[in-house]
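ok trying again, last paste got cut off:
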Amino acid sequence: MVPFYKRVVTICLLGLACACTDTPRPEAYPDTSGAGTSHTQTVALQEKPEAVALAVGDSVVHLVEGSFLQLAEGQPRAQALFVAQPDKLPAVQVLLQRYQARLERKPLSEKQLKSGRYQSTFFSGRAPLQAQVQQSQGQLIYQRPIQVKRRNCASCDEPSLLNFMAPDLDQLRVYSTQGRPEGFEVGTVTGLWVIYFPTSGIRP
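nice, full thing came through this time. structure:
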């Protein structure tokens, strides 16, 4: 018997190993069917679809951002499509199809970016920049801030950071404030990962 969250970790490990390949490979995904789980675990999943959406959403985001880290270093032109359409990554596709979910990236407005109040209002009552799930009109909406991160290298030359809001591979690498005055800082929020889950796709 494998606990639910260990299955989610399995997604990340398997997905990161093959997300940047051209050919989709078989993936493991969180199982909400009840098979292989105790009655208590099954009831918990049935009663808490928000927890399932949160775990699956986190897995999708980790898979996408992990793949972007790899793509930024190799910059394979044949796989540039994945930056523009991260939902086409093989491991991500498996999860989205399994839960009938839809992935989007939403930019922050200029007003939100300048005010600096977005995190404290939208994510009030939670740890800074933590994901959250809301229910609205028959669906669960997962949202997590998109933050600027460092490239996956020991000592990167400029541009040394990554902006996961980039619409294409050439714009994935961005300058830090040390490289250019108008550059980014690590942790800057540039948008939101948003995943829409129909409740019918989450319930066993």
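cool. Residues 4-9, 11-45, 119-127 have pLDDT under 50 and may be disordered. The chain is about 40% helix and 20% strand.
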